[in-house]
Specification:
The complex is a heterodimer of chains A (about 375) and B (about 280). By secondary structure, chain A is of the alpha+beta class. Chain A has helices at about 40-50, 90-100, 120-125, 140-155, 170-190, 200-205, 225-230, 235-240, 335-340, and strands at about 5-15, 15-25, 30-35, 55-60, 65, 75-80, 160-165, 190-195, 210-215, 215-220, 245-255, 255-260, 265-270, 280-285, 290, 305-315, 320-325, 330-335, 350-355, 360. Chain A has 2 domains: about 5-235, Rossmann fold; about 240-360, RNA polymerase II/Efflux pump adaptor protein, barrel-sandwich hybrid domain (OB fold (Dihydrolipoamide Acetyltransferase, E2P)). In chain A, the strands form 4 sheets. Chain A has a 6-stranded mixed beta sheet, sandwiched between helices. The longest helix of chain A has 18 residues, at about 170-190. Chain B has one domain (about 60-270): MetI-like (MetI-like fold, Orthogonal Bundle), CATH 1.10.3720. Classes of the chains: A alpha+beta (about 375), B mainly alpha (about 280).
């Protein structure tokens, strides 16, 4: 099956910055999130797909159509930016009416949607018809998002591009708009690429996540896989993994990898790299189970049992994170209610358990 | 309680200064404002309505004022026509020597206007590098003509349009232009529908300043052209021939006309300015 969007070996040079070679593919209706720190090349990627940067090499295909040499106005991509980029000198209706209906749209509009170019119908579809004569400055962020979506869709795009639309919003508004956007995108079944440096946005929206660093692709996988199995410590840190441990591979035992961390040995469910090799381990704080120091109950097959001293306790509202010195520093996370019941306090002795499949082994 | 709530419910804080600083700023500021306004008020008060009407009926004074307005309007139009593309290029592109070009645009502001007049005479005069061939090829003459007046006015006043328009273009988020492109508008339509309207207020301010500066230009015009006389040249001539009384009456007349036009243009330029989209 032809992917809805394909980026093949795309290379872009902008001054000293170099992006790629980058390969991406989106299935119809798939939502891809490009995640990375500032300067990773996320926006450049988006703008290259939209046609604002001439690539040194590579191709961009939309619905099988090679658009690499087309200017932005002939590519049929929709762009939504931070603050939604409504034209301040035009009313809501004029903003939507500005979109030019392509003479021969590459993709037929999905059923149940207004025809491209029908301003009133699109405003109605997004429930903002009553705002038609307002100016963008008077709109709430939620209303701006709906107008921006109506405007973009009225131009019949084959692909949606979002460049950090939420980055200037407060958390509750962001959560609400994120949910709303996701619902619309699912209903529209258009492929979309969403750029962000916020891993929460990424995990909430993405079917697939691409992680960029300094213009190079670091990982390209399903969202759940990027979350559970980050490709390296850079991705793990970016996705907020609390425990990233330096370790050395000892060997295999009972189908589990034996890994030396400080003077302790941890067992991880992985086929593992060659013995003697330096690796890094990613362990999420919520996968570290806190148990009483006297813990000697039965251990699940391949489990790890650790004991140590609490060095710090940090309350986070409903949660508490606890740092434990057990030969190496380990961060655990538990419910505030549980922490109170166990009388967690700095200096106290404590036990911890980590399942073998909760330890992810990374090459670096 | 400072600030007010707008329709969307966001609070806009009013800027406030500490009281001492506030008073000092106002005291010093009002001295400057008084210095700027008092001479003009004194000039206006010195004139009786009767003598004003008498001068207004003098054909040569009326012609001079009309010529000034005509020349200034043409100068403003040329400044807009050539200045807007230059301003956009300066705002949106980077190129080798861009600071030099930006400095060259500002140069006429630093050149004494009599010096500008002499320099223009070298180029547009009877034996000038452009003046001589243009005269012999297309019959365009810059001495003793409106064309010369416009050239002199444009030279000293064009920077206002270029600089104001450039600031206006720089203030536009380039992503708005990019969105317009993805909506199917080509680069030219994007410029006409998005960029130009968003910079309209700044451009109008610049053109207004160019127009005002053109009306008031004396030094460059008097050296390059002299006849026919623009209003400032005419006032100078009245001053030399009949003294300050006659000159002052004509001066008040020019002041009234140019202030009225300036205020009108300022009002037009300020209308319905798009606010920053947040």
């Amino acid at each position: 099956m032809t992917p809805a969007v394909a980026v093949e070996a795309l290379t872009v040079t902008l001054g000293a910055f170099r992006l790629g070679p980058l390969d991406l593919a989106l299935a119809p209706g798939e939502l891809l999130v490009i995640l990375g720190p500032n300067g990773a090349g996320k926006s450049v990627t988006l703008e290259a797909i939209a046609g604002f940067h001439r690539p040194d090499a590579g191709r961009v295909l939309l619905g099988g159509r090679d658009v690499t040499r087309l200017p932005p106005e002939r590519r049929h991509v929709g762009l939504v930016v931070q603050n939604f980029g409504l034209f301040p000198h035009l009313t809501v209706a004029q903003n939507v009416a500005l979109a030019r209906r392509p003479a021969n749209s590459a993709s037929a509009p999905p059923t149940g949607l207004p025809p491209p170019g029908d301003t009133a119908a699109w405003l109605d579809y997004f429930g903002v018809a009553r705002l038609a004569d307002r100016t963008p400055q008077d709109l709430s962020p939620g209303e701006k998002q709906r107008v921006a979506l109506a405007r973009t869709l009225a131009a019949a795009p084959a692909l949606f591009l979002f460049d950090e639309p939420f980055s200037a919003l407060d958390t509750p508004t962001r959560d609400q708009l994120c949910e709303e956007l996701l619902a619309f995108l699912r209903a529209l079944a258009l492929p979309a690429i969403f750029v962000t440096h916020d891993c929460n946005d990424a995990l909430r929206l993405a079917d697939r996540i691409v992680v960029l660093r300094a213009g190079a692709l670091v990982q390209n996988a399903a969202a759940a896989e990027v979350f559970r199995k980050p490709a390296n410590s850079f991705v793990a840190r970016f996705l907020g993994v609390e425990n990233i441990l330096d370790a050395r591979m000892i060997g295999m035992s009972d189908g589990l990898a034996m890994l030396a961390v400080g003077d302790r040995t941890l067992r991880a469910a992985t086929s593992g790299p060659a013995p003697g090799g330096a690796v890094r381990l990613a362990v999420r704080a919520e996968d570290v189970a806190i148990v009483p120091p006297s813990d000697n109950g039965p251990l699940a097959a391949g489990g790890n049992r650790l004991a140590g001293k609490i060095t710090s306790v940090r309350p986070l509202g409903p949660l508490v994170t606890v740092a434990i010195d057990c030969g190496f520093l380990l961060t655990a996370c538990l419910l505030a209610r549980e922490a109170r019941a166990m009388q967690i306090g700095v200096g106290g002795a404590i036990g911890a358990r980590i399942a073998a499949d909760a330890i992810h082994v990374m090459p670096d | 309680m400072h600030g007010s709530l707008n329709r969307a419910g966001w609070r806009r804080a009013a800027p406030s200064l500490p009281l001492g600083l506030y008073l000092v700023c106002w005291f010093i500021g009002s001295l400057l404002v008084a210095f700027l306004v008092i001479p003009l008020i004194a000039l206006v008060l010195s004139q009786a309505g009767a003598s004003l009407a008498e001068v207004a009926r003098m054909a040569d004074v009326r012609d001079a004022i009309a010529l000034s307005l005509e020349g200034a309007a043409l100068s403003a139009a040329f400044a807009a026509l050539a200045g807007i593309p230059l301003a956009y290029a300066l705002a949106r592109t980077t190129f080798l020597g861009k600071p030099v070009v930006a400095a060259l645009v500002d140069l006429p502001l630093a050149v004494p206007h009599t010096v500008a007049g002499i320099a223009l005479l070298m180029v547009f005069g009877r034996q000038g590098a452009l003046g001589a061939p243009l005269q012999s090829l297309v019959g365009l003459r810059f001495w003793g003509t409106l064309a010369g007046i416009v050239v002199a006015m444009l030279f000293v006043s064009a920077p206002y349009t270029v600089n104001a328009a450039r600031v206006g273009f720089e203030a536009i988020d380039p992503r708005l232009e990019k969105i317009a492109r993805t909506l199917g508008l080509g680069p030219w339509r994007t410029f006409w529908r998005i960029t130009l309207p968003l910079a309209r207020r700044s451009i109008m301010t610049g053109v207004t300043l160019t127009f005002a500066r053109s009306i008031s230009e004396f030094g460059a015009v008097v050296i390059l052209v002299y006849y026919p006389m623009t209003a400032p040249v005419k006032i100078y001539e009245l001053f030399l021939r009949f003294g300050v009384e006659q000159a002052a009456t004509a001066a008040v007349l020019l002041l009234a006309v140019s202030l009225a036009l300036f205020l009108l243009l300022r009002t037009l330029a300020g209308g319905a300015a798009p606010r920053e989209n947040r």
